């Protein structure tokens, strides 16, 4: 009696499942005969033309991200000013990915000061829409908080870092000058009103 009940439950469970079958570990839909994938791309990466089109259409949101030669990876480079904070940055990126995308971004550290972050969809061995969404989420993070300086290319990163530091220093000096000018101006206006 117990075995009949288990067999009945198992059979009814199978009937309620989505009708599909597995062929060499690839899920195939009965309806269309195409691979099912969570990326809704039939198990294929985005075509290079589509990748270029998407990147151009959202270029403001994926600023700093580069494509590799065959357009199967999104890559971004950072200079690390504080190693511990860079590790925290990677933890936070992993948390964002785990909660939203589950694509497992790749990263590498070179010379303890150059971080390379690489996004792609491993099951597709190429790019999907999720990779662009993750790139946008990463761009929303405050890089100053992690003491990271974004760089364009790793070949001349030291020069780029110098330029970024000089720019930041100039901005601080400019802000200090504006604050000092405003203080002096306010003081002068108060004195002229009293006189």
TrEMBL record:
Q: Which reaction does it catalyse?
A: (4aS,6R)-4a-hydroxy-L-erythro-5,6,7,8-tetrahydrobiopterin = (6R)-L-erythro-6,7-dihydrobiopterin + H2O
Q: Which InterPro entries match?
A: PCD_sf, Pterin_deHydtase
| Protein EC | 4.2.1.96
Q: What SUPFAM superfamilies does the database record attribute to this sequence?
A: PCD-like
- From the UniProt record, give one GO term of the biological process aspect: tetrahydrobiopterin biosynthetic process
Q: What broad class of enzyme is this?
A: lyase
Superkingdom, taxonomy of origin: Eukaryota
- Which UniProt key words apply to this protein? Lyase
- Keyword Lyase assigned: yes
MF terms in GO: 4-alpha-hydroxytetrahydrobiopterin dehydratase activity
What PANTHER family does this protein's entry cite? PTERIN-4-ALPHA-CARBINOLAMINE DEHYDRATASE (PTHR12599:SF0)
The protein depicted here goes by the name 4a-hydroxytetrahydrobiopterin dehydratase
């Amino acid at each position: 009696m117990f075995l009949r009940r288990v067999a009945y439950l198992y059979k009814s469970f199978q009937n309620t499942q989505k009708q599909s079958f597995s062929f060499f570990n690839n899920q195939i839909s009965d309806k269309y005969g195409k691979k099912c994938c969570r990326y809704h791309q039939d198990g294929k990466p985005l075509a290079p033309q589509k990748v270029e089109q998407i990147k151009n259409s959202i270029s403001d949101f994926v600023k700093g991200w580069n494509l590799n030669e065959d357009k199967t990876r999104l890559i971004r480079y950072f200079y690390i000013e504080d190693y511990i904070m860079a590790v925290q940055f990677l933890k936070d990126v992993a948390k964002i990915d785990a909660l939203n995308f589950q694509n497992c971004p790749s990263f590498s550290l070179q010379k303890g000061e150059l971080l390379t972050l690489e996004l792609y969809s491993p099951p597709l061995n190429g790019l999907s829409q999720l990779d662009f969404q993750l790139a946008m989420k990463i761009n929303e993070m405050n890089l100053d908080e992690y003491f990271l300086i974004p760089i364009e290319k790793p070949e001349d990163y030291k020069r780029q870092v110098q330029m970024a530091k000089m720019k930041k220093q100039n901005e601080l000096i400019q802000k200090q000058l504006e604050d000092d000018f405003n203080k002096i101006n306010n003081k002068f206006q108060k004195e002229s009103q009293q006189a």
